[in-house]
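Need tokens for this chain, all 308 residues.
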Amino acid sequence: MVRETRLSVDQLIYPLFISEKVDDQLEVPSMPGVSQLSVRRVVDEAKAAADLGIPALLLFGIPKEKDERASQAYAPDGVTQRAVAAIKKAVPHLTVIADVCLCEYMSHGHCGVITKVDGRYQIENDASVELLVRTAISLAEAGADIVAPSDMMDGRVGAIRSGLDSHALTETAVMSYASKYSSAFYGPFRDAAESAPQFGDRSSYQMDPANALEALREVATDIEEGAELLIVKPGIAYLDILWRVKERFELPTAVYNVSGEYAMVKAAAQQGWLEEKRTVLELMTAFRRAGADLIITYWSKDLAGWLR
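Here are the structure tokens for all 308 residues:
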């Protein structure tokens, strides 16, 4: 009766990976219980999630072919576009959030356009933003309710909002990865999304884990540019950031319980070192206590059963 922090299924967002390379599904070795899914199978998974009361999905696409312009990210018949359309047709009331990034579609695995200057590779911010806008518009036209730019390029939220509005997609919301750190916890995700950089790292455009005030500046900029929902990523090591973002800005705020966090608990539970259900419920409660309105987690289906 006096519990201060409550968990509910309607606070969950379920991330899914759609691959053109699989006919049915293919389990990700570093993420037990998580698979790459075909478009047909992702529709089945969407139906199952909706039946459990999970209100939203977050989709990541893996194309057969990649190039240096990420052309499949914004192709009208791209794998994510087809998945969005199929899910909205099968489960119209389910909220579909489409991740907007280029890393899964780039041959080099980075989140933007790369050029080489004086023997060094560098991200071309403005050229990358142009492709991100095209991607967001394409996903919204396919039926995505929300687009979620995760690339961390400067100015991309404002450009995406303007692009959507100019294509009469004013009802499509922008959920920004407003505070996304250059983290060691993303390794298993890069296996799942086949998005590991082929050279270098992402520290020039993702945030330094040592910086907190910078996160608040990044979030403020995204809100000024039109972000309506916010994401803090990763979760466990950044609860202080989550708390400060929610306290200061008071917008709907999600935390991403990322792949490395998931894999650590799964591995420990498989060894008998942790009780999985109890550990996961404690983590989710911590996210909520720290200010998360929404939790993006691979445990969504399990939690839907545990919370009944």
